[in-house]
Every structure is written in structure tokens, then in C-alpha cells.
């Protein structure tokens, strides 16, 4: 159990367009999901905490209008990168919390903005 | 300043060697987790340690949580090329889940 999926696994888009990434907990319900960004050879950086049915909580320095998060159900959270630019190119990883202290990660989505 | 520090940052060893990586903090945690991440994939949970002084074994991997619950270590016995990856420690700090910077391990055949 505790499987988290992400879709798409990789995406290439043109500068100025928007991209939506989905994160699903497949076999458990997750009240809280997290979105991370990871640059090459670096650790994960928390972008925002997504709570089902309420607004996401963004980390300092993360533009909430640029990275739109929706957590409409207990198994799905989406991250939309709006008006993407090349500097938004990165590896985006979501995780879903199951119980206290338990967190399971998706396989990640590699975004390349040309 | 990082809440969680990891050392060493990089480690390159030969197959069969033993190694230990460390995760340290000045804060006390109720639990701490270790993950391994391979390139292009999400982190995979290896273990959660909860009790101060706790030792957990996962095949050739031995995890220890410090008595004061501020630090942890991961020891790998007889490393294999398949152990290559980024090893991350992580813990809840308040309501946020915080990662250390990671130790990048290369186990060469």
C-alpha cells in the first residue's frame, strides 16, 4: 500500500503557457499533500502544503499566483505552473501524508520550459 | 542555516566497503525518516525512527536514532552498486516536513 502517482512524468512546454501536474494517492486518502521542487544534485525544497478543501499554504518565496494548487479531493492534488518560463524548469515531486509522520512520494514530474 | 545537516555531502566507495552517513540537528524531533532517491525518481522511504536510541535494521542497512532524538545515522555494510543514490533524512518540524541536503553515494563495482 501507500502508492502515490504523478502525471505526467515529464512535460515540455513553451514559455508563456501553463502546465498542470496531478498527484494522486492510489490506495489511501490524504488530507494533506505536499509539493516539492528539486534542482539537479540538490535536495527537495518544499513549495507548499496542500490541504483538502482549503487553500494551500505556500513557503516563503513561492509565488502562489504562479504555482496554483488545488486539493479538491482526498486523493488528488494538482499543481498548475502558470505562464511558465525557462527558470521554472525543474523536477517537481508531490507527497501524500498518511498518518502522523508518514509521507509517501510520487515519482516526480520533470518540467522543461523552452 | 539548515535545520537538518547531513554529512558527508558526497561519498564514493568501492563495492564491499562499509560506510556511515550522518544526519544532525540542534532540534529535537518526534520521529525522523530516511529516504533514498535515484535520479529522475521520487524519494523512497527506507525507515522511520521514533524512539531515542532506537536501532533498526533493513538487510545491510542499519539506522540509529540518537538518544536525544536530535541526530541519526545510517550504516551500510558491504556496499553494492545498487546502493548508489541520494540518501535524505527528513523530519516534521511544526507542520512542515523538512529534508536534509542529502548524501550522494556512489558505490563502484
List keywords for this structure.
A: 114 residues, mainly beta, seven-stranded mixed β-sheet, globular, B: mainly beta
Task: Describe what you observe in this structure.
- Chain A is built from no helices and eleven strands.
- Chain B is an all-beta fold and 109 residues long.
- Helices cover 0% and strands 55% of the residues of chain B.
- In chain B, a hairpin with a 5-residue loop joins strand 7 and strand 8.
- Chain B starts with a strand and ends with a strand.
- At the A-B interface, strand 5, strand 9 and strand 10 of A face strand 5, strand 9 and strand 10 of B.
In terms of topology, how is this protein built?
The complex is a heterodimer of chains A (114) and B (109).
Chain A: E1 4-7, E2 10-13, E3 19-25, E4 32-38, E5 44-51, E6 57-58, E7 67-73, E8 76-81, E9 90-97, E10 103-105, E11 109-113
Parallel strand pairs in A: 2-11
Antiparallel strand pairs in A: 1-3, 3-8, 4-5, 4-9, 5-6, 7-8, 9-10, 9-11
Chain B: E1 5-7, E2 10-14, E3 19-24, E4 32-37, E5 44-49, E6 55-58, E7 61-65, E8 71-76, E9 85-93, E10 96-99, E11 103-108
Parallel strand pairs in B: 2-11
Antiparallel strand pairs in B: 1-3, 3-8, 4-5, 4-9, 6-7, 7-8, 9-10, 9-11
